[in-house]
Specification:
The protein is of the alpha+beta class. The chain has seven helices and nine strands; from the N terminus they run αααααααβββββββββ. It has helices spanning 3-13, 18-25, 29-36, 46-60, 64-75, 83-87, 103-133; strands at residues 165-171, 175-181, 186-192, 197-202, 206-210, 216-220, 223-225, 233-237, 245-246. The strands form two sheets. It has a five-stranded antiparallel β-sheet, covered by helices on one side. β6 (216-220) and β7 (223-225) form a beta hairpin.
Length: 247
């Protein structure tokens, strides 16, 4: 089956419409229809096409890794961008040549400066004469009151409690992972590459879907879980429980 046929078949098996998939992925319905017909011209490029495939696959419940590999085989792997492509503007910027000020402008500026200086001297002289004629006044010198330095106490760091669900995943092979809450809110979705590990701490029931359960080591609250499956599987974990429940 092609990429589009696989996504369309998974969507129908999940009981979802194109409108529902569009609402979950924020991808326009017309683009989803084109992808299901293996038309990626409206995606806006290979980078966006891969992202759309990954997002749609996550919603309909299928592993995006083999689909991305098939896309790369058909359209070529994602190429590297040259530094010039990043820093050079697509439209040349025209820089206006600076012109030296004209002689008349210089004369005007000098005259304004002379007039301002004369007015300043006149006002200063008048103010000095008025102050000399009046009675001198003595003003008390105000001393600033020292402000006590507040004592800053460090905030205690958050440590997992018995009411938390601490999920730790170590990938021996590439594995697509989707974490959602019981209400369906997405916590995390992406591919955890081989040789890396990720940890999530939640205070609610968490549904974990693994695209390659045989390629990861999964522990919940320090207890290892055994999905015992070679196909994508969904597990559910609640606060205070370390045993897995079918999703």
């Amino acid at each position: 089956m092609s990429i589009g046929e696989t996504l369309a078949d998974a969507r129908r098996q999940a009981g979802l419409t194109i409108t529902q998939v569009s609402r979950e992925t924020r991808i326009r319905e017309s683009i989803i229809r084109d992808i299901e017909q293996d038309d990626f011209s409206t995606c806006g490029g290979d980078f966006y096409a891969r992202g759309h495939i990954r997002s749609i696959a996550g919603v309909v419940g299928t592993d995006p890794v083999p689909l991305i590999s098939e896309y790369d085989a058909e359209h070529g792997p994602l190429g590297r961008m040259r530094a010039a492509d990043v820093f050079e503007p697509s439209t040349p910027i025209k820089i206006r040549e600076r012109r030296s000020p004209s002689l008349s402008m210089i004369v005007v500026v000098v005259l304004l400066a002379i007039i301002g200086f004369g007015a300043y001297r006149l006002v200063s002289h008048h103010a000095g004469s008025s102050a000399a004629a009046g009675t001198p006044t003595h003003r008390p010198t105000a001393r600033p009151t020292p402000t006590p330095t507040p004592t800053v106490h460090p905030s205690p760091s958050h440590t997992p409690t018995s009411s938390d669900v601490v999920i730790h995943l170590t990938a021996n092979e590439d594995c697509w992972v989707l974490l959602t809450s019981n209400s369906g809110a997405q916590i995390y979705m992406g591919v955890v590459p081989a040789g890396s590990a990720m940890t999530w701490t939640e205070k609610q029931t968490v549904n974990v879907r693994l695209g390659n359960p045989g390629g990861v080591v999964l522990t919940v609250n320090g207890k290892r879980q055994n999905p015992n499956s070679t196909t994508p599987v969904t597990l559910s974990f609640s606060p205070g429980r370390t045993t897995q429940s079918p999703g």
